[in-house]
Structures are given as structure tokens and as C-alpha cells.
Amino acid sequence: MSVLVNKQSRVIVQGFTGTEGTFHATQMIEYGTQVVGGVTPGKGGKMHLDRPVFNTVEEAVKATQANVSIIFVPPAFAADAILEAAFAGIPLVVCITEGIPVQDMVKVKHMLKSTSTRLIGPNCPGVISSEEAKVGIMPGFVFKKGPVGIVSRSGTLTYEAADQVVKAGLGISTAIGIGGDPIIGTSTLEAIQLFMDDEETRAIVMIGEIGGSMEAEAARWAKTYATKPIIGFIAGQTAPPGRRMGHAGAIVGGSEDTAAAKMAIMRECGIHVVESPADIGKTVAQVLSVHAS
């Protein structure tokens, strides 16, 4: 099995006819994802990549029965795009857009509470269920089917971890790039809970960053409730306190925000912490071999 997306997922692309939307929709289609159409206001009724274009998400859902939307809309309009998809009843919305104003995301986060929509992102690489569906911008060829779930705040480290796990003779059930912004739709803990409930996922890789408390929250939950091993890595170990790093969310504030503090909490809670991203794959293999014996 997989979580969030699979071969049955029916995907629309918001910002379909733009440069980014076109490029990544093409890649998703080539991966085997069911991209059933897209939305570009003012271009409804046309065809693009042999799929229909609609003016609104509501029209697209009625015509295609889409249940997933991926958003490639400029930052100024992305918050409205998320809410449009949610109010059209789409259960899963993946927002790739980087640079959405924090104030816009505060509004989105509040308004999503009145819907049944799950948001992944923004500022994320998306979601991929290996050899089933790719709803995002990750390089699909890296991902092979297997028993390891990945949840990550970092895009590139998601691909690196997947590559290592595959080369260690294992594979990936689903990888969820939750995004690096201060306000995102789905937290590290919520992603881990999805994997805990997935029968085919036997181990979870959790890739975090400095800043915020998501990794600590997930670790404390896992200490009591985890039924599968978690392998954890925190990026930004050499970052100076108070310095804003590449991701908008990666800034050290309180005492638990540093990489060292997060790693200590994770260890205390029974998570297998790796010091270097180069050790993720072999650690996953070691942990799973121990659990299998």
C-alpha cells in the first residue's frame, strides 16, 4: 500500500498551462500519474498536454472527478488557489509554490479547519508513492517500491534519502515532502501517523531541520505510540543561532530549536538518530534487519 496518493488518484494541476505546471505535469504523466486535467483561469475549454483545461477547480472536479490537486501558482495568488481547491471539495491539495506570504498562510490554515481537505506544503516537493503516482517535482527514477516511508522538511534530502534506501536493497512506500515554511498544512507528526497506519510501511525516515518544534513533537508522540522504527536526521547542525537559513522556517529560536537539542530529544524518545545524511540508507537497513530477526 501507500499513503495519500496511489494509482487511483485523479490529479488536476492548478497553473496547468504555465511553464512550471506544463513541465512538471508532463513528468507526472510520464511517471504514470493519472493527470485528468488542469485549471488556468481564462483558458477553459482548451486542451493542454491532451488534457482539458478549466477556468475553475469546481468545473474541473465536476468534469473529471479529481480528488487531488497540485498547485503551481505564483505566490501572490497561491493562497486563493489552495482555498479554491478546498472549497471545491478536493481531499488532498499539494502546494509547490515557494514564497507565499506568512499572513496569507495564517488565513489558509484557519479556513482549512472548516473543510475536510489535507494540505501538503507549501514550499515543498510534493508526494510520491513509488511506482504508483507522483504528485510533485521529485525525480521519479530515484524511487523504487519498498517498505520505507519518508517524511521530510527538505526537498533535496528527500531524494538523497530515497536513493540511499534503494541502494541499500530496500525501497520507498511513499515519500512526503511537507515543506520548509513556518506555516504548513501537514506536520511531521501527522505524516508519521499516516505511515504508522500503513500496513506495508515497516520503517520511517524522518528528516527535519533547525527551527520550530515539529520534530520534538513527533518524537514525544513516537515514544509512547510508535509501532515501527523511526530513523531521524536533522539538517542545519552547524547553523548559528538566530540566523535565517535557506528555508523560511529554518531559523533557531528557542532552546529546543537547535539541531543538537532536537537530536537529543529524538534519542531520548527511542528514535535512531544519524549524525550525517550519508548514513541514512545503511542505518535504515541495519534497523530493519534487527527488527526482522
Specify the number of helices: 9
* The level-1 CATH class of the largest domain: Alpha Beta
Main beta sheet: strand number and arrangement?
Answer: 7 strands, mixed
- Give the helix level as a range of percent: 25-40%
- The N- and C-terminal alpha carbons lie at a distance of 23 Å
Give me the count of strands.
14
- Average pLDDT taken over every residue: 94
| CATH second-level architecture of the largest domain | 3-Layer(aba) Sandwich
Describe this structure in words.
The structure is a single chain. Helix 3 runs parallel beside helix 4 and helix 5 crosses helix 9. The protein folds into 2 domains: 11-120, Rossmann fold, CATH 3.40.50; 138-288, Succinyl-CoA synthetase domains (Rossmann fold). The two termini are 23 Å apart. Strand 5, helix 3 and strand 6 (92-95) form a beta-alpha-beta unit. The chain has helices at residues 19-31, 57-64, 75-87, 102-112, 155-167, 188-196, 214-225, 259-268, 280-292; strands spanning 10-14, 34-39, 47-48, 51-54, 68-71, 92-95, 118-120, 126-129, 133-136, 145-152, 172-177, 203-209, 230-235, 272-273. The chain contains 9 helices and 14 strands. The longest helix has 13 residues, at 19-31. It has 293 residues and is an alpha/beta fold.
